[in-house]
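Example (one chain per record):
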Amino acid sequence: MILCEGYSMTGTSGVNGDAYYISPDKTTFLLADGASGAGSKGKVLMSNLCVEVMKNNPFSSSELSPKDYLDQLIWKINNKLIAISQEEKHNIFGTIVIGIVKDHVGTIAAIGDSPAFLIHDSRIVRIAKTRKTYYNLVEMGLYSEQQIEEAVQKLPEHMWSMFDRFIPMIVPVYVIEEIRLNKKDMIIFCSDGISDYMQPDDIKNTLREENLLESMKTVINTAKENSIRERKCVQYDDLTLLVYMH
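Predicted structure:
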């Protein structure tokens, strides 16, 4: 039996910039994370717009392949975000990860640092991983990835996002990956409020098929507690988890 559940908790800002959507047939799903830099209003506008565009343009009636649908959907979202940013005179931006499952194949598209994972044969691996903006420096041999990561970690937390991908862009840069799914495989989307404070194996070991939604809530509460402990104050990001089980 196919299961698909989502759950979200508002962070200490009091305004949830995360939003998720699961299509009625549970074959199409999306998680959008409006960036804090967009402001309280802007981050909500961003994530809600992503959900609205998918709802109004369902894959089931598109007659497109999953890849073509994702390509068109991302461009449609991107263009609408550019338009609303111009209307608001403020950059309305964030990250997004989208999934489609058809004929036992998952097609995943991602922009930014909200990761997607696959659990298969008791192993969890990241899928549709986007590249940081500095990766060209690594390819040119100027720095190693470890050197840049160590330098970024020394920056104030609010500056880390300078190296990530966000939507909208003039020409959106995104990753699309296809994965063959077996029975009991899980696709997991989570906002960085979770992935920054929980290791993938800890997420995998917490999720339970027989009580999926409650175990998802446990993941979110664990990430919240880890954030409070690491920051040494009551502070945590919006926390959103979406799980598809084939």
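Caption: The chain is about 35% helix and 25% strand.
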